[in-house]
Amino acid sequence: MSWLLPPGVSTFAGDIDRIYYLILWITGVAFFIVEAGLIWFLIKYRARPGRKAHYTLGNNVAEVVWTAVPAVVVIMIGVLSGGLWNQLRGRDAIPDDAIPVEVRARQFEWNVTYPGSDGEFDTGDEFTTRNRLRIPVNTPVVVYLESEDVIHSFFVPAFRVKQDVVPGMRIAVWFEATVAGDYPLECAELCGNGHTTMGGTVSVLPQEEYRRWLTEQNQTIAAR
Prior knowledge:
5-stranded mixed sheet; 3 helices; alpha+beta
């Protein structure tokens, strides 16, 4: 396990990484300051023969400082991340030209459904793959998430994408991969005894290879 993120391969990975490492540095510095203070107090005010305890009502200046400083930091992080959140999850965040894909989660697998040649779902020409999502590189993709049983979590670390999949809800999440390759698709929600086996792969293909693969699938469906 590492606090460092894996290499990011989506258009917004860099922005997310900057906020993540900013928070990591802030909390890391705060941790060492608090622990250093704790050790100093343990040593300075340790019990000694003949030394009486001193009762104090507190220090108003210290209380204001340790309340105001975290509040300012939290507000600053909120302001910095607000614009990015709107870009990723805002009402109009999904690009109009995003390729639609449906992903249905169930214990313990991911079922990926692609629209047929008409580009629409529920028209009889869709096709489904299990535990493998294929998408073209440098192209926005919107994934519509649904669950058949319990809460799952669609997590692609390399894309910096993580979204809970809730029964009874259809949730859209979008991303644009920038580097071709295979990347782990994980379930980040404890969803049952077989949770650890619920893994998949996101294959980011060169655009021509993706079009060729999609054509082959559509031809197979049409031939049935």
